Amino acid sequence: MAGRSAREPRNLMQLLTRAERLAARHLQTVLDEDGCSLDAWRVLALLSDGEGHHMTAVAEAAFLPPATLTKLVDQLVDQNLVHRRVDPLDRRRILAHLTPRGQTYWRRLDGEVRERWPVLSDGEDELLRGLLERLADTLHGSPAEPAL
């Protein structure tokens, strides 16, 4: 029998996990210099679009449970990087935004990360991004099939 197929989920999961952990470790090395956690970076990245986001959307984007996100956002508010406002369209909901200080911090942090992020050869970054987006969309749309 030939070697394991690359289509076996366990092989793909191993590669994805290894790449994610190595990327997170690399990113955290850069973030540590600015006292920023990976979770905070994810929150700041989302809020950097300037549109304001509901806490539910922020939790999903940061891959955090709501209680953990609340504590993190409280810390970012204490650091004057984020502020909360009542949603003018739904007064029961809160929108999170970057403060002017948060915008400045994000631009500097993003520049440092981009400068030190390893780049694949021409076109491979976009190819990888496209394939990962396609995989995520496929997995999101298809429920796991029960084992026979």
From TrEMBL:
The keyword Transcription applies. Pfam families: MarR_2. InterPro entries: HTH_MarR-typ (IPR000835), MarR/SlyA-like (IPR039422), WH-like_DNA-bd_sf (IPR036388), WH_DNA-bd_sf (IPR036390). One of its GO terms (biological process) is response to stress. The keyword Transcription applies. PROSITE patterns: HTH_MARR_2. It comes from the Bacteria. GO terms for molecular function: DNA binding; DNA-binding transcription factor activity. Residues 9-137 form the HTH marR-type domain. Gene3D superfamilies: Winged helix-like DNA-binding domain superfamily/Winged helix DNA-binding domain (1.10.10.10). Keywords: DNA-binding, Transcription, Transcription regulation. This is Transcriptional regulator. It comes from Streptomyces olivochromogenes.
